[in-house]
Amino acid sequence: MEKLVIIPTYNEKDNIARMIETVFSLQQGFHILIVDDGSPDGTGAIVKGMQPQYPDHLFIEERSGKQGLGTAYIHGFRWALARTYQYIFEMDADFSHNPKDLIRLYDACANGGADVSVGSRYVPGGKTENWPWDRAVLSYGASVYVRCITWMPVRDATAGFVCYTRKVLETIDLSDIRFVGYAFQIEMKFTAWKLGFRIAEVPITFIDRKEGYSKMSKGIVKEGIFGVLKIQWHSLFGKKRR
Fold it and tell me: What average pLDDT score do residues 105-112 get?
């Protein structure tokens, strides 16, 4: 029991069963934790119905109401740290992230010397597919903006396909992570980098979802824009991180 894939869900009934089956079909020893925010479409019920098929490998934590991506991952991180997992992954439920790339993210940490590995759209070999031009421009512009403001040497700081080694999550003060939306991914990577951990980027192809609905909103984008400034300000002038 060393590899845990955390998948936050909200109304993912069209994707979740196939995602679970695909991850387990890799036969790489991955366990899965679904953190479901009370999906009214029955996502949680689907997962619980599959648990007898994957005993001691498929888990679900159900929360009341939509509480945000960041809090879902922090909930999952704490759950993982209370057990013996050594490699903890973040992944979307909608197949924007190819489950087969979990193996490459794991290898970058387990054998490549990285403390954090990021599935990156913006390193050589990485790309996006089926995105409208305005979203592609927004995403790439955000990655450039983050590098300019934070000086962090990560080309895809907003990426949500990540592997953290246990020591990184044990070292980060998770109660000090402030953002819950778009900026959460940036803050986690920035904090790991400032603490001296090595971040490696693994090229992936990010494919826009085919089933269900995107959770992106103007509020999430706004948090990302102003959150980056707050993250750097806090780093330069706020309290020292542990």
Answer: 98
